[in-house]
Amino acid sequence: MKTTIHTADSRGFQNHGWLVANHSFSFANYYNPERVHFGVLRVLNDDFVSAGMGFGMHPHSNMEIVTIPLSGELHHKDSMGNFGAIKKGEIQVMSAGTGIQHSEFNGNADKPVTLLQIWVIPRENGVEPRYDQLKISDNAVDNEFQQIVSPNPDDAGSWIHQDAWFHLGNFTENVNRTYQLKKSGNGVYVFVISGTVKIGDTTLNQRDALGIEETDQFNLEISENSEVLLIEVPMKLPKL
């Protein structure tokens, strides 16, 4: 098993006043040639958006975009006619494909919103743009991982145009869990939203991450009061 650790304090950091962003991978003005991507996982931004502020209408194309709110309420509007709000316990998935424009704003005038925005390189370019918003809290079970994204529209959670699986878990007790990879050649990016997780000899704390590859399974020792995101992705970039 090959592992790569990304500690929370090693991430790229940008403070724009209304937006405070931590970048697990090169993004915008942050560039690290050793932190461009993990397989087809291209972006994992950990954002804090001040009350009433947000991102104006801007374009995307040929990227799978997953947004996971951690607190507050995020208001969405896009060129496909979708609009609404997402909050903790929900996810938003967009296939940018041939091109979309969207805006994301903090819908609360008094409180900040925090979120993870994740970009995955698709297996093919030029797909029809799509939008999905899903309440995942109804099917969540404490102390177990819940599948929230997969390649299959008929599977649990939402779906994207890539052989990738996202699992999210909220753990109220000390537990051991084994993750079995879904596809040979994939790797897993373990991101600790809160709490503590031990994988082998590596201990991860809040906002630390571990890239795992060249294995078909691994064990996690998860401490109580932890929230953990697993992102399984192909390690080989597609020829687009």
UniProtKB/TrEMBL annotation:
Membrane-spanning ranges: none
Residues covered by the Pirin N-terminal domain: 11-120
Domain Quercetin 2,3-dioxygenase C-terminal cupin: 147-233
Annotated Pfam families: Pirin, Pirin_C_2
The organism's place on the tree of life at top rank: Bacteria
Family: Belongs to the pirin family.
The protein, known as: Pirin family protein
Organism: Cloacibacterium rupense
